[in-house]
Every structure is written in structure tokens, then in C-alpha cells.
Amino acid sequence: MEWLVSLVGAGLVMISLRDLFHTLWHPTRHGGLSRLVMTALWRLARRFRARRRVVGLVGPLAMVTVVGMWAGTVILGWAIVYWPHMPESFAFSPGSKAAQEPALLDSLYLSLVTVATLGLGDIAPGEGWLRVVSPLEALVGFALLTATVSWVLAIYPALTRRRVLAIRLALLRDAEPTTQQIDCTAGALLLDSLATEVVRVRIDFTQYAEAYYFHDGEDHSSLAAMVGYAAALAQRGQTARQPEVRLAGDLLAGALRDLAAILDQRFLHTGGTPADVFAAYAADHGRAS
User: Fold this and answer.
1) Do the Cβ atoms of 111 and 139 come closer than 8 Å?
2) What stretch of H or E contains 123?
3) Do 98 and 51 share a domain, yes or no?
4) When you count CB atoms within 10 A of the terminal residue's CB, does the N or C end of the chain come out lower?
5) For residue 53, pLDDT beyond 90
6) Where are the transmembrane segments (predicted)?
7) pTM of the entire structure?
């Protein structure tokens, strides 16, 4: 029975590590516990009247919640591993009152101290296999901290690339380029560069799906609001007279179709055309495309 309880704890740890792996290093369209948390917070925030202010907090709060969920599951799982073997399989420092506490409380304390790599030493594993398992928890705690920092450092550049593209599209819309300005070599270069930026954003949505749940603020920095203008530019390029402009327009249109496919598969599930997907994307972010 003791080993069965310990296996349950090990299962909780593995669930947390699997979710961390698929969120940070091997994202899949099926998501995991982290995606469920983020989606639930996003949908809940959209119900509030002061929607823009609340939705703007979803991304950061969701990341904090997910990291807390990972850490809490690891701590609880390892505590359950220790629990059936506490206190007889552990050594306590002289004068320590830890052995007088409930076994579950001591197990939680030891797990928390170990995962935080504090190593206070007032409770130490005595059996051989526990002396191996306990340092492994410290390694997992160190990996969790490193992964969290890496996640934060990676997500914000992805958000910057998305907002830069949106602002660039807003500036182009305000400049109102003429047909002659689009139907030339400079226009071809412009459409080609936009296609490259759209592809980068598409990759960001694949690699960092949680970026979807970050609100972009004002309309001119919101890709949800500006992506429709990118589609209009692609259509103008496709009907141009210059062959290099038509090619660049096709590239931009293809990049936008690919982006729409990713948005629909992972987040929106409309099953419609790229125009339908972009309209749903704008509506989901409280924008008019």
C-alpha cells in the first residue's frame, strides 16, 4: 500500500513535467493543462463589462497561474511520495520538533524545501532510494525555475514581433499608398517583407500558443484589428500588372492563409475561410478588423 501511494505521487510529478515539456519545448495543437487554464481565464475575462482592462491582465496572470500549478503539483506529488515513509525512513536533526508533526505536514515541508533547493537539513532521507529521489526533486525544482525564466524571456519578444507588424500595417493604412506605389519594385519589396513578418508571427503562435491570450492594447498595435488590411494589400498585389508584385502578393496571401489555418486549428475553430477566421480573431480580441 505504501508503494501504491508513492506511485500516485510520482504520477502527479510526471503529469506536471509532461505539461511543462509540451508547453515550452514541444507545443502541440492538443494543448494540456496549461492551455486549459489559459483558455478558461480568457473566456472568463471576456464576460466582464470592463473587458479591455480585465482581458489585458489575462496573459500575465495565466502565466503566473500555470507556473504556480506546475510548482504546486510537483511539490504535492513529491510530498505524497515521501508521506508513507515518514518518519521512519528519515533522519531528523537533534532537537528538531519536526518528527512530532503530522507525517503529511512533514512531507510537504520537506518537498517544499527540496524543490526550492534550500537544503535546510533538519529532515534528511535515510533509506537508499529516498537519498536518490530527494536530490532529483531539487534538480526538477531548478529546471522549473530555469524553464519559467526562459518562458518569460521568450514570450515577450514574440509579442513584440506581433505588435510591430500591427503598427506597421496601421502606418501603411494611414499612408494610403496608391496603386502606382504598390505596382512597382518598391511595392513588391514591401509585400514580400510583410509576408516574412506574417510567417514569423505564424511561427510564434505555433511555438508560443499562450501569446494568443495576451491583449495588444490600442487598435494600431493590435494584429487582430489590422490583419484584415494585410489581406487587402495582398489582394491588391495579386491584381497588379508587374509580375514581381503579383508574386509578392501571392506570397503574402499564402502567409495569411497559413496564419489563418493556425489560428483556426488552435484557438477559434470556425472551419471557415481566412476572412472568417480573421473576423473571428478580431471579435475574440474585441476589435473590428
Assistant:
1) no
2) strand 123-125
3) yes
4) N
5) no
6) 57-83, 138-159
7) 0.84
